[in-house]
Amino acid sequence: MLRLGIENISVFGLPPVEFxxxxxxLGCQHISxxxxxxxxxxxxxxxxxxxxxxxxxxxxxxxxADRGISxxxxxxxxxxxxxxxxxxxxxxxxxSELGVERVNTVSMDTDQGRSFDExxxxxxxxxxxxxxxxxxxxxxxxxxxxxxxxxxLAHVDRPNFRILIDTMHLVRSGSGPSDIAALxxxxxxxxxxxxxxxxxxxxxxxxxxxxxxxxxxxGELGLRELVAVLPVDRVYSVEIPLRSEAEAGLGPRERLEKxxxxxxxxxxxxxGEASTGIVKSKY
Length: 283
Known about the structure:
The chain is α/β, with parallel strands linked by helices. About 40% of the residues lie in helices and about 15% in strands. It has an 8-stranded parallel beta sheet with strand order 3-2-1-8-7-6-5-4. Strand 5 (about 130-135), helix 5 and strand 6 form a beta-alpha-beta unit.
């Protein structure tokens, strides 16, 4: 059955309980979250910290139980040269309290060997809390492409350490459907969906990826062919920040309703309603 989510950067700092309600109202089952407010906040939402505010955690847990939402991805566990991943122990405990299924990591430490070793430690820490750890490949980061991500998986060699496929990052880094089709599907743990042009629109890749992506079907990534070879039973989560629309005054529901619709159409087209178990929705 289709497991559809909304990623944290798509809502630009929307507080957690409101985010839960938005996802449920749009017919999704999952959200991703970090433990603190997103830095960009065009709607002037109240700043929050799930790390420091135990009452907010309780409110979020109650809201998720009431609306049938879970956190499919915990974010913020970045590998950096000045951070020992053992320091993430407290954050992992909080993610566990929130019922998080998996946590994600990227590396900004240019020492690839150290990054791989830190992935191994973090994967062990996640396993101790019955969580999966996913590794996101990002052009310009230490794990910049699929071959490097596969090398990291081989180095760590743990069943709870898998790859997160971000469709923009994957295609922009030079991989495509044939590369995914050649993989053992068990290596893929999570999918972030968006569309984009094949060539960057911004001078900074980071700025484009964090602030301005496209609705599935409106870009040039070849999403139908890509999704057709991805495992159907993973979470497919909409990661589509639309800064230009937010700055034009559109709220999160106005921005994301078409994104969720586009994701549903894409998944139905690629896999069919019977295989995905998609329930028809007014959205």
